[in-house]
Amino acid sequence: MHVVDDDPAMRDSVGFLLGTEGFEVRLYETATDFLRRLVEPAAGCVLTDIRMPGLNGLELLRRLRASGHKLPVIMMTGHGDVPLAVEAMKLGACDFIEKPFDDEALLQALRSALERNGAAEAVDPTLREFVRRVGTLSERERQVLDQLVAGGTSKEIGRTLDISPRTVEIYRAKLMAKTQAGTLQELVRWAVLAGLA
């Protein structure tokens, strides 16, 4: 497991958690350091912060893919980084988790990425089911979905759609229930994988 984060407390905390779960962990302060120390054949999974000084997580992902590395990559994002996370997913990231995250959510994302290890998700029955559920959304719910995936806040979505933020929250709750997405992160991830973003 390769953990890339410029925040020493976060890096050490994640490293400790993964170590106690039996993962072999390597910690890197910068993306440049990670790329310089990456050996062939590369194995495991990359867990990287999306916002770092110098080479950020998106550029790290671009460079990995450009050089032919197929390592699964999970992005750690801060609140409000949904548009960046969407871009990361389009570039081939397996998943993204929003900080602060639950330990179990991180472990589940990592295990899932390692199991898939780059396998195409287009054949995933869960993805097909998600697309079917999106088809049940009303026109307004679909508009709210599109705005959420683009990273809009309830206020911004309300202004765009000329409805109140409270009404946006109601539509959001309905579309979350209809798509059976447990979190905004999950909703965005499935929307990107389904080509809806």
UniProtKB/TrEMBL annotation:
UniProt name for this protein: Two component LuxR family transcriptional regulator
Molecular function per GO: DNA binding
Annotated positions of the 4-aspartylphosphate modification: D49
UniProt keywords, alphabetically: DNA-binding, Phosphoprotein, Transcription, Transcription regulation, Two-component regulatory system
Annotated organism of origin: Methylobacterium oryzae CBMB20
Residues in Response regulatory domain copies: 1-114
Transmembrane domains' residue ranges: none
Superkingdom of origin organism: Bacteria
A Pfam family hit: Response_reg
Domain (HTH luxR-type) ranges: 130-195
One GO biological process term: phosphorelay signal transduction system
